[in-house]
Write a structure and sequence with these properties.
Keywords: ATP-binding, Glutathione biosynthesis, Ligase, Nucleotide-binding. The protein is about 45% helix and about 10% strand. It contains 19 helices and 14 strands. Helix 2 packs across helix 17 and helix 11 crosses helix 14. The longest helix has 24 residues. The two termini are about 20 Å apart.
Amino acid sequence: MISSNQRLVLLGQNRHALKYMLRGIEKEGLRVDGQGKLATTPHPKSLGSALTNERITTDYSEALLELITGTHDTVEGLLAELETTHQFVAQQLRDELIWNQSMPATLPTERDIPIAWYGTSNTGMLKHVYRRGLAERYGKAMQCIAGVHYNFSLPDSIWQIIGTPGSSPEDQRSQGYLGLIRNFTRYSWLLMYLFGASPAVSRSFMRGMDHSLHTLDADTFYLPHATSLRMSDIGYQNKAQSDLQLCYNDLDTFLERLYTAVTTPWPDYVKIGTHRNGEWIQLNTNILQIENEFYSNIRPKRTTSRCERPATALAERGVQYIEVRCLDIDPTTPIGISATTSRFMDAFLLFCAIEESPLFPNNGYCRDSHDNFSLVSKEGRKPGAMLVKQNKPISLVAWGEELLERIAPYAKLLDETHDGVQYAQAVESQTEKIRDSQQTPSALLLAQLREHGASLHDYSLEQSRRHHETLRAEALSSSTLQEYETIVRNSVIEQQHLERSDTEDFSSYVARYHAALRRPVRQQS
């Protein structure tokens, strides 16, 4: 077994491979009207088809925009594309804004929150009915929470350089990413502390929910030491998923448990059924309708083709990249994430990939890591906060400083690779937050609300307006505008083609989609 220090040395000797490290972003944001109320208008035609536009789509709600970048080998290229897409969208939204806060704006009643619509093709209807199922299972308000998803991949040569075990490059890659995920699970509490920016929520979101939140003002609830209510258990109660424990020790076990979850009926969902008044209301009555319904902080991913199941793609071709799902929107920047955060994420994820990553005991479930993450989400800034590391108590400050010291050499390697100092600066800039919790984004947001005497809604609306004007202020070049308009037109044409080319009824398509899920076959060791 090669030690972490030896791996780091080997990586340093071959750091040119890091030039091919890739990252991408999926950034969500609610469309709201000028008063900060959820938009109930259809997805704007000027943004193209939400089904087939690869850069601009929707998530759960018709109003929940999702802006998607391609993969980039530099942070500069990544954020430049994200900013350009934001600029294009802002210039198309005449009377609406993108809400630049993870916790939702003023929501209408559950009945009036619009579920995303993708047209009448079988592919589009599958996405829509899946979201109907989410509404039945979890309620619509919970699905309006927004975040930033960070996609990350390393070139296959990295796994060979550091001696990742595996019978093939595909197996090496999958084992390498699962090791990354285990370390991420151990240390992801740090991301909540450093970048959590949702310590408060508007009263309209908590309508009808039992909670123990404090009152900041007539319209705002909060927790005094919270970092990310978005990633806490506030308002989220789902017995089916709480009993679901996936395992990241090996891909076979992970896929077996995922397969069980998407094929095992859950009594409460059986009572609901799949149809109401002759219409589909969920894809099936199982614990999960499809694989993506499992809410996790990080996912192993593989690109899929039409009607291909994610689990089947993983089983047949292995893990291709990972998707980090726990980053809050940064409300201080128009695009929801800063270059400093992106560079820290690169260094942190590289650290998670290269450091030793022992298997989890207890059938692959790490209770301490789960508890640490939950505690930091709700009480991470509490003076003297204590976590659990290897079954022993440790202060958040001590462990945080230790992790930053261990991540620093990876930032240095990335700087040497890219001929700069910005990665080291990104890691170093987090030290002040560890030593002084008042410097964290969550604390700064609460301080701003108190200083301005503003509710979360009013403050977020004003910020969103300023960001909207900033994005609209600089006109896109004629060539860039033409590029985006072409993407819009082509997406509409592609959706129309899908709708015309379908030759089977939707029920048959759903049956074929379910049949495409194959029971994983455990590999013999």
